[in-house]
Structure formats: C-alpha cells, structure tokens
Amino acid sequence: MQKFERKLGKTSSHSYNIVIPKEIVEKYGWKEKQKISIVDKGHGKIEIRDWKKR
Q1: How far apart (Å, rounded) are the C-alpha atoms in residues 48 and 30?
Q2: How far apart are CA 38 and CA 46, in angstroms?
Q3: What residues does each domain of the chain span?
Q4: Which of 20, 24, 42, 50 has its CA 20 to 30 A from that of 32?
Q5: Nearest to 38 by CA among 11, 15, 9, 12
Q6: 18 and 6 in contact (C-beta within 8 Å)?
Q7: Which residue from 11, 18, 10, 9 is spatially nearest to 38, judged by alpha carbons?
Q8: CB neighbourhood size of 41 (10 A)
Q9: Dist CA 9 CA 24 (whole Å)
Q10: Helix, strand and coil in the chain, % to nearest 5
C-alpha cells in the first residue's frame, strides 16, 4: 500500500478540494469528469468510489 500526503485546499466559502494522485485514478480506471461518491465513515475516515458501484 502506497501512502500519499496531500494538502486540503479551499475552493470557495462552501467547498474544499484535494488532489488525487494519478496512480490511484489509473488504478481504478477513473476518467476526467467522472462522478464519484464520497462517504463519511466517521472518525476522520472517508470512502471515495465510483458512484455507480454503491
């Protein structure tokens, strides 16, 4: 398992962004502008996945 460290950026007063490494995007076959689902798992953990594979 590779570990990537990223900084949280502020996009506007209502949202933030984080850059996902190219290696991870390619590993899962994600494409630019693809919809993804972000689930708050609690205790500082989130899950990011293809929104169709809920």
Answers
A1: 11
A2: 7
A3: 9-50
A4: 42
A5: 15
A6: yes
A7: 18
A8: 8
A9: 19
A10: 10, 35, 50
CA–CA gap between residue 26 and residue 32 (Å, rounded): 11
pLDDT per residue as tens digits for the range 1-54:
788 999 999 999 999 999 999 999 999 999 999 999 999 999 999 999 988 876
Residue 1, both tokens: 């398992």
pLDDT recorded at residue 2: 82
Is the model's pTM score more than 0.85? no
SS3 3: coil
Check residue 28 and report its DSSP letter.
Answer: T
Both structure tokens of 11? 């996009």
